[in-house]
């Protein structure tokens, strides 16, 4: 049976709240992964009350009826919100991810949707990988690509969580070609057989023919030309300050670095965009926001992005 695994993320953030809110009225079979002790908090208890939740061991997941929501308890009985030490919160988030990956690799689930985790908590807990993308990359021994899906427009990042000063040296022909290839394959899974992909320049005005930087003329333009036969509707590089105003003309924009792509996306789709990890042997989606610990357990968290992430995971897993 196709089933989506939903990790509850850092228990000191809004992950458990948005995950449970997003499952209300959901028609897809899902399994939650996180500590059962979270249900001791009144808000979480209330959110669980009307859901058909069944505690289940990972080895018995195949016996769970599709109408029931499984909950895999990872322990940590002392983790009762909202006063959870950051290190414990980080360990809980990491263990939930590890369980989900194991289920995906064994074929027991079809995709993973992850609630937000805190990079700070991962560092305090002693881990070297701070975010989902790097955790998954380390586990599978590869460098994933970060993509974002929304009803407004789609964005894929050539570089991810790196200091801005390091970005130019990371814009290589191989990295950009891999990013464009994964972008095209992902859009194909979304039903777009010949996607229109626009590539942003790195420098202001896309380098002004080398006057404001050489990355466009030396790397980006030759890479686009080399890929044109495989992807005939790819174009660029375009100045990033005007490209996003024309996003409706394209199926996806390939940005050179994190804030170049995500600042415009989150301006128009903060509550509904979905983060998708490309280049993995498994499907993984997540909401486009962080843990928002300042509003955790206040009942204020918006589950729209989480719901969209679950729906997209199901779409990718079923090819519909």
Number of strands: 12
Q: What is the count of structural domains?
A: 2
Mean pLDDT: 93
- Strand order of the main beta sheet, please? 3-4-2-1-5-12-11-6-7-10-8-9
Q: Regarding CATH, which class of the largest domain?
A: Alpha Beta
The name CATH uses for the topology of the largest domain is Isopropylmalate Dehydrogenase
By secondary-structure content and strand pairing, the structural class works out as alpha/beta
Q: SSE order, as H and E?
A: EHEHEEHEHHEEHHEHEHEHEEH
Share of residues in strands: 15-25%
Q: Kindly, what is the distance between the CA atoms of the first and last residues, rounded to a whole number of angstroms?
A: 16 Å
Task: Give me the CATH architecture of the largest domain, please.
Answer: 3-Layer(aba) Sandwich
Number of separate helices: 11
Q: What does this protein look like?
A:
This protein is α/β, with parallel strands linked by helices and 320 residues long. It has 2 domains: 1-144 and 280-320, Isopropylmalate Dehydrogenase (3-Layer(aba) Sandwich); 145-277, 3-Layer(aba) Sandwich (Isopropylmalate Dehydrogenase), CATH 3.40.718. It has 11 helices and 12 strands. Strands 3-4-2-1-5-12-11-6-7-10-8-9 form a 12-stranded mixed beta sheet, sandwiched between helices. α8 (215-227) links the parallel β8 (197-200) and β9 (234-238). α1 runs parallel beside α2 (42-49), α1 crosses α11 and α7 (173-189) packs across α8.
């Amino acid at each position: 049976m196709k089933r989506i695994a939903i990790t509850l993320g850092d228990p000191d953030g809004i992950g458990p709240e948005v995950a449970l809110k997003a499952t209300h009225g959901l028609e897809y079979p899902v399994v939650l992964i996180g500590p059962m002790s979270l249900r001791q908090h009144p808000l979480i208890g209330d959110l669980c009350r009307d859901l058909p939740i069944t505690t289940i061991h990972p080895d018995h997941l195949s016996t769970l009826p599709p109408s029931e929501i499984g909950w895999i308890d990872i322990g940590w009985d002392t983790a009762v919100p909202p006063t959870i030490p950051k290190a414990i919160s980080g360990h809980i988030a990491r263990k939930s991810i590890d369980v989900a990956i194991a289920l995906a690799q064994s074929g027991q689930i079809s995709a993973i949707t992850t609630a937000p985790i805190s990079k700070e908590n991962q560092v305090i807990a002693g881990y070297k990988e701070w975010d989902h993308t790097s955790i998954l990359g380390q586990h599978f021994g590869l460098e994933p690509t970060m993509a974002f899906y929304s009803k407004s427009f789609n964005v894929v990042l050539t570089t991810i969580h790196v200091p801005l000063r390091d970005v130019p040296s990371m814009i290589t022909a191989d990295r950009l070609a891999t990013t464009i290839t994964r972008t095209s394959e992902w859009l194909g899974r979304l039903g777009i057989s010949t996607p229109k992909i626009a590539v942003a320049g790195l420098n202001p005005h896309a380098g002004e023919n080398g006057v404001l930087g050489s990355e466009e003329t030396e790397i980006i333009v030759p890479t686009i030309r080399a890929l044109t036969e495989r992807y005939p509707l790819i174009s660029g590089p375009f100045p990033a300050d005007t490209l996003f105003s024309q996003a409706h003309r394209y199926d996806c924009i390939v940005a050179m670095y994190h804030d170049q792509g995500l600042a415009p996306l989150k301006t128009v789709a903060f509550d509904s965009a979905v983060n998708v990890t490309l280049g993995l042997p498994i499907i993984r989606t997540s909401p486009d926001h962080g843990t928002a610990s300042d509003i955790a357990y206040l009942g204020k968290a918006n589950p729209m992005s989480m719901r969209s992430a679950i729906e997209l995971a199901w779409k990718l897993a079923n090819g519909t």
